[in-house]
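Hi there,

I know you've been waiting on this one. I reran it after we fixed the sequence typo, so this is the corrected version. Both the input and the resulting structure follow.
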Amino acid sequence: MKRVFTVIAAVVVMLSLTSIGYAKGTTINLWFAGTEAPFMKTVNEEILPLFRRAYPNIDLVVTFVPWGDLSTKLGTAFAAKLPPDVFMHGQAATAGFAANQSIEPLDKYIAKMPDAKDFGPTIDSGAYMGKRYMLPMNGAGRLLIYRADFFREAGLDPNRPPTTWEELRAAAIAQTIRQGNRIVREGLDIPTQGIDAQQIYSNFLWQNGGDFISQDGKKAIFNSKEGVEALQFIVDLIYKDKCTNTQEERPLGNVQPIASGKVAMQFAVPNDIKLIEVYSPDVYTQIRVAPPLMNKEQVALYSYSGLFMAKDSKNKDAAWEVMQFMTSPAVLGKICESLGMLPPRQSLKSAPFIAKDYRIQAYVEGMAYGRGNPNVPAWVKVRDILATYIEKAAFGVMSPQDALDKAAAECNAALAGK
């Protein structure tokens, strides 16, 4: 702990030398995505005091925005020409913001960063049309997590998690508990609505050799044979194998469904693991993380969130200083640890909070099989359209083929700007 404080103190001293030259009262508004208590506490009680010591002339105003409200609030702010100077968002939003000329290219700033190489390939995760727009902050993968005690209870070996679709199906069926026609414990929780549904579908789509959009970015191709088979697999888990519900299990307060015993397996991001550790420590010892599944390919959704600079910021140099400070190794390590997320810097891959926990290590290892969502201007619209039709198939309103064909037609119009 003393060493970490020493490193941060050194960073503060170094950065304070660069703070000279800003007029006193320069205000920078920063919007962070997420309202997790450990994250907000770390920012408010540890990081902001350090920033104020390093940059006494910059008045940094931080706002925490729930992920579900972020796009709407940003849209309103941009429309009013009053966006935050710096904001956090996912990499898949890059193209849309860039195409609308809402964000500032960062290449000239990144070129002057002495340690830009420490980000490795993630420095390009927010690239669009040859320009970089995002400074990565944290990464996440959607991997299968399960409970060792439930595995043993079902006669399964907790040291041998599912690695294929058929093994996943068998494990889900074995761990499902019913009372009559009612499922008391889902063998596998599958989201059927919203962004979560699209993200889980992406895993199965890619694992089956399919993809979302053609290479030229002009046509939806998820209604291919591979895409239909992927959605049919999800639908069969609900209606044929009866090991999951159409109603996604939501956390009870801060208690994850797998921690409350309502589900035996679920797809989770590292932040979910962090919440289990904090709020369900008695269950945490039983939590395991499986490697990315495969059918034809071994792959899983991985994506990065990062900081963007608004095109309309009136203090871009000061905004960059904020971005650089928040992604410096010592500060970024504290942010990622508070969130339980994966740090984008190479130097943090063996950070103490990762090294001590084999669960987070599993996510780091899974990055070798990671794939991100398409980075096209219409992606958010395409994603939302697709999620709507995945829900229709999951609830039995349409067949997987009809649902994906209808979704593809609407998505093609969105890709064409209609």
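Quick highlight: Residues 143-301+375-415 form a domain with the D-Maltodextrin-Binding Protein; domain 2 fold (CATH 3.40.190.10).

Best,
R. S.
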